[in-house]
Amino acid sequence: PAFSLFIFTIARDPLRIIILIAGAFFWLVSLLLSSLIWFIAVKASDPQDERLQKGLLIFGVMFSVLLQEAFRFLYYKLLRKAIEGLVALSEDGCSPISIQQMAYVAGVGFGLMSGAFSMINLLADALGPGTVGIHGDSQLYFLTSAFMTMVLIFLHTFWGILFFHGCEHRRWWEIAAVVIMHLTVSGLSFRNPLYVGSLVPSYLLMAAAAAWAYLLSGGSAQNLRRFLLCKC
User: What pTM was computed for the model?
Assistant: First the structure.
């Protein structure tokens, strides 16, 4: 899905490509810092204490989510400054890209890098050793991981729109909603291998976030109906 979004909505505009790459870089830095904190915590603890290690894993995931959203806020501030610079340099006093478009492209950048790392981890597990489901466990690990990666890519895109809108209009409850949704989706992964318990709520949250982002972007039921009916 990230590749499709890139080809159809971003690839033709050099400025959007720059914003996309920068957004992916911000997500990567947040992952690097959270991984470093988690690695230090694991090395400084007792590796034989399974309960402690599980607690550190939960802490690492929650800390990573909060750090990602903090970097999303820093990226918004950076793009806001960039818009001011573009307006100052333009002849007509208008920015060549709106904050709504920046929010969308930045969200795709976050989702693109998130999906890439999820795929890398999945491929690393596929190398073995062992066979999925050999001891009677679910054989849907790779399939559900693919669907979970897809939902996270779309969610990051929608979260980018919601988060930037909240920052732009000082609606802090919208920012809080994004953080809560992100924490919820990440926390649902701990229900695996009960995949229905994690996939179904995640997709429901994605549908709600998509509808919310669509409305905040100026969409309406009439526009959606005309699009589905292929009317101009």
Answer: 0.88
